[in-house]
Amino acid sequence: MTQKELHPSVLKFKEFVKNNPHVIKEVRNGKATWQELFEDWYLLGEEDKRWEAIGTENGSAPEKTNESKGDWMSNIAGMVKKIDPNQMQNHINNLSQALGAIQGVISQFQGGNVAAGSVKPQEGPKNPFAFRKD
């Protein structure tokens, strides 16, 4: 049985979890799922305060209502600075290819004679609210 090779980011996350056993306890206690934790780790990074809060909290969720708009904006600005432009471009290219494939499948079901890019929406009735007056 051959095992599928994991994405490098998944391997890094697994290493992060090995170094932070409190993350495993979070999942086992039912407070979070692996998917949620991976997404947070991927977006926020390993140095985010969220990971410290998981290790120190005693069954209570961290309070986010006390954050001011300035803190929120600084967090967003920090995340934007951490974005790798090459990785973002790869994600955009993958999304573009997926949308192109979906458009191809749709055009096959619609008749397929229309060239890609020149598909125009079907025209509806001229006046969709044409009611008879009493």
Would you write up a description of this structure?
58% of the residues lie in helices and 0% in strands. By secondary structure, it is mainly alpha-helical. The chain has a domain at 7-58. The termini are far apart.
Please work out how many helical segments DSSP would assign: 6
Structural class: mainly alpha
Total DSSP E strands: 0
Task: Quote the average pLDDT.
Answer: 75
Offer a few descriptive terms:
mainly alpha; elongated; 134 residues; 58% helix; 0% strand
Summarize this, please?
InterPro entries: YlbD_coat (IPR025953). By secondary structure, the protein is an all-alpha fold.
What's the topology here?
Elements: H1 8-19, H2 21-28, H3 34-44, H4 49-56, H5 69-82, H6 85-109
Protein name: YlbD family protein
Pfam families: YlbD_coat
InterPro entries: YlbD_coat
